[in-house]
């Protein structure tokens, strides 16, 4: 009788220990996703073919990502554009750099050097209303989508230059692929680090 009672207590203790450990594990995961990482879902076609509508992205949060560099894919929240809804764009230039765009020949220049933009899906022939050449202000970024024909980005005055404080983080990993048309199966080969 005493042995059965002991076994019952052991089972209860073990269950309690598992629940205790699980709570700590959940707390650690929550802290990681509050302080270090974020998950964002791409909305729209502005980054097509690099990223598609519905892609789930893992971001390195701005808590640890302070210095955006040319070529980084960042997620931005700008109150003056789409009520602060997160948008995904590529950093073209950082503070102090001069951007010029030859819309006739679809060439983007940064500090007089033509960018090699193998990642673009459409030519850069839509001007958006911003006057070029443009020098990026201190603490700001000039961003563009890879699908230049449909992307609302720094070429448009309602988006304009992005204050670094508006950057939520850098996209580092495609966790789950989306599709442009919602079709299945999804292209799982796209899962991986974002370049």
Number of helical elements: 1
Q: What is the helix/strand order?
A: HEEEEEEEEEEEE
Instruction: Describe the global form.
Output: elongated
Give the full name of the CATH homologous superfamily: Umud Fragment, subunit A
Q: Any idea what the CATH architecture is?
A: Ribbon
Q: How many domains make up the coordinates?
A: 1
Helices and strands: which structural class?
alpha+beta
**What is the residue-averaged pLDDT?**
89
Question: Which spans have pLDDT < 50 for at least 5 consecutive residues?
Answer: none
Beta-strand segment tally: 12
| End-to-end distance | 65 Å
User: What percentage of the residues does DSSP assign to strands (E)?
Assistant: 25-35%
**CATH class division:** Mainly Beta
| Assembly form of the protein | single chain
Q: Could you estimate the helical fraction of the residues in percent?
A: 10-25%
- Estimated radius of gyration: 23 Å
User: What can be said about the biggest beta sheet?
Assistant: 8 strands, antiparallel
Question: What fold name stands as the CATH topology?
Answer: Umud Fragment, subunit A
Descriptive account of the structure:
- The protein is an alpha+beta fold.
- It has a single domain, classed as Umud Fragment, subunit A (Ribbon).
- It has one helix at residues 2-36, and strands at 37-41, 56-61, 73-76, 87-94, 98-102, 107-110, 113-114, 134-135, 140-144, 162-163, 167-176, 192-193.
- The radius of gyration is 23 Å and the shape is elongated.
């Amino acid at each position: 009788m005493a042995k059965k009672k002991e076994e019952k207590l052991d089972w209860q203790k073990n269950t309690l220990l598992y629940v205790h450990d699980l709570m700590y594990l959940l707390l650690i995961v929550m802290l990681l996703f509050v302080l270090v990482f974020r998950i964002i879902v791409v909305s729209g076609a502005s980054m097509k073919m690099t990223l598609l509508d519905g892609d789930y992205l893992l971001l390195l949060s701005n808590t640890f990502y302070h210095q955006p560099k040319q070529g980084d894919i960042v997620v931005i929240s700008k109150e003056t554009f789409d009520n602060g809804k997160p948008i995904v764009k590529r950093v073209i230039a950082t503070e102090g750099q001069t951007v010029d765009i030859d819309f006739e020949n679809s060439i983007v220049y940064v500090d007089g050097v033509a960018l090699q933009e193998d990642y673009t899906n459409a030519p850069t022939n839509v001007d958006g209303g911003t006057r070029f050449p443009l020098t990026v202000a201190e603490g700001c970024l000039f961003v563009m989508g890879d699908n230049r024909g449909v992307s609302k980005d720094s070429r448009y005055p309602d988006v304009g230059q992005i204050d670094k404080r508006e950057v939520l983080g850098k996209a580092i990993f495609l966790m789950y692929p989306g599709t442009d048309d919602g079709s299945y199966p999804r292209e799982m080969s796209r899962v991986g680090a974002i370049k």
